[in-house]
Amino acid sequence: MFSGILVGKSINLRLVELSDAKFIYDMRQGSKSKYLSAVNSTVDSQIEWIKEYKKREFKGSEYYFVIESKEKESLGLVRLYDFRDDSFCWGSWIIKDGAPPNCAIESVLCVYDFAFYQLGFTKSHFDVRKNNLKVVAFHKKFGAIITGEDDENYYFNFTLQDYDKIRRRYIKFL
Known about the structure:
This protein is 36% helix and 31% strand. It contains 5 helices and 8 strands; from the N terminus they run ββααβββαβαββα. β7 and β8 form a beta hairpin. The longest helix has 17 residues, at 43-59. It starts with a strand and ends in a 5-residue tail after the last helix. The mean pLDDT is 92.
């Protein structure tokens, strides 16, 4: 059974709670959120969004995590959603400035381990803004394949088989 915490080597991912509303709001208002969907809200509206999200979490149709240090410092956010048969989408991935250098790769490994090995998905689909060059390059290097594009986004797919291969290269981060 899922405990609500994904354990990494130097970070953990824990499910979002109402008390995280201000952190989420602040992260979504900062310059690092320019490639995420715009959020024009208040902390109170973020609390309401979390309440609705918790219903989806209870049903097992979405998971929203705070990425945190082992000392429980909030470092970022990541979300799994849009579950379709054997595929899941993940995104809303944002890591604050000053986070440890391994935070990004460890959070990705935790996401994929959870989705593929615990939830049983065999594929991932996600989109990345074309102008988000670092993240586009990251996903390509990790082995994700661009399957389409529009004016604003690249659309990626990544399979369990791809992950099983690349995971061995990054095992030291687990």
